[in-house]
Design goal:
The protein is α/β, with parallel strands linked by helices. It contains five helices and six strands. It has a single domain, classed as Alpha-Beta Complex (Ribosomal Protein L13p, Chain: A).
Length: 149
């Protein structure tokens, strides 16, 4: 006789119920948006969250060109990268980065909130960021989600 009336369910790639989610970034603060998007990508909002598996949702972010940075962060903050060579430090302001590619700020903010390993890189591939309203994922029928509500 089985005396255990419950089982701990651990999700994996086969059992994960992955949904398509649409997030409108218009008028949202970058950090608050990125933390909620990273949470959905990771799957922490689900009851069957498993830390070592990709059980999160596919997230489509639209209107990334209408995000907000509070205070003087557009000019005072610096994004840093290194080429790998001596003296290869590159620093750029968010405004210059935004002028080059309007989706890069959202991508970098979300990527920084994911694990720094193979799983984090695999989860990051489930994020799709678009500068405008148009996106190429209408066929997946993404469900619109209000983050700040």
């Amino acid at each position: 006789m089985d005396t255990l009336s419950y089982k701990t369910v651990s999700a994996n790639k086969a059992t994960a119920d992955k949904q398509w989610v649409l997030v409108d970034a218009e008028g949202m603060v970058l950090g608050r948006l990125a933390s909620q998007v990273a949470r959905m990508l990771r799957g922490k909002h689900k009851t069957n969250f498993t830390p070592h598996a990709d059980c999160g949702d596919y997230v489509v972010v639209i209107n990334a060109d209408k995000i907000i940075l509070t205070g003087q962060k557009w000019t005072d903050r610096e994004h840093f990268k290194h080429t790998g060579y001596p003296g290869g430090q590159k620093r750029i302001s968010p405004q210059e980065l935004f002028d080059r590619d309007q989706t890069s700020l959202v991508n970098q903010a979300v990527k920084g909130m994911l694990p720094k390993n193979k799983l984090g890189r695999a989860i990051f591939r489930n994020l799709h960021v678009y500068a405008g309203v148009d996106h190429g994922h209408e066929a997946q029928k993404p469900k619109a989600v209000k983050i700040n509500a």
